[in-house]
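Action item from last week, closing it out:
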Amino acid sequence: MKKIVTFGEILQRWSPQGALRIGQRDLWEGQFGGSEANVAVSLAILGNEVSYVSRIPQNVVGDACLRKLRYYGIDVSDVVRGGERLGTYYFEKAADLRRSLVVYDRQGSSFWSCAPGMFPWADIFSRSSLFHCSGITCAVSRSAADATFEAVRTARDAGLRITCDINYRRNLWKYEGADAHGTLNALMQYSDYIFGDQDEWEVATGVPKIPEDGMFSDSVLDMEAYGRYFDEMHRQFPHCAEMMLGLRNQITTNHHTLSALLWYKGKIFSTRIFDITGILDSVGVGDAFVSAYIHASQRWPADPQRCLDFSVTAAMMKNSVLGDFNLITEEEILANL
């Protein structure tokens, strides 16, 4: 069976215990995570054959990272070893009305210094059916962006389906000449499936998002406006067959609402607006949605509504799982569908 390939930087996540702020406690909790690795783990948990490609340091931290990925059944044989260190980020959990806080420490990491020519893409894609990439890889450094575009061009030439999560991270676009709009828009031109929330789509396309005066479970979405919106998205990305728009309102730390829209070959599908309460960890909710949709689109390719419902259910359930990885199975998602 050919594999799904994801490409990106896996990070060490450090958090103060509980809802403490950075600087309040000397004891920190550490775990591995990162968008593309999160997608790989979730896809493996859902029963897919997955290969994760990255550049990881040749030291005991890198060894531990690879052991964790292998534990979840991910093929890491195409990971390149080299560079100085694993990238990290510091995460302060949200509490009540205080939003979460992320501080990145990725400059000079092994992935930060990756470059075209380091990865044998032609060989990797000869064993693969789908390639998943993210705008985050293009934000890390100029050379990482170049490596990403080398990958998508090779994947396109090899006939793979390409999925792209826009994944705009404002705090990452720091290198000289960084152009989030131009780079993300160019990356999306290669994609068969595109995922993103309204803010991310706006950055990548320049099209203003549709205003929502707070989205609650009894809100009614303006589907005519979204129809015109997706018509413009299709005009900008004519190659793309499926586009997903995530809608989330963070009312309080422990109360979010979530819905999603899917443009599927000219038709729009939607879900109801769900209330999510008792949230344990909202990191990786978008990655849970993306991986669930990739899985569902292969499981039920002729049923886009089921694929969308499955994906939103997976994203909602991720809020109950601590850490970056969504460890929810297909059986558990279907039970809640």
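Closing note: The chain has a mean pLDDT of 95.
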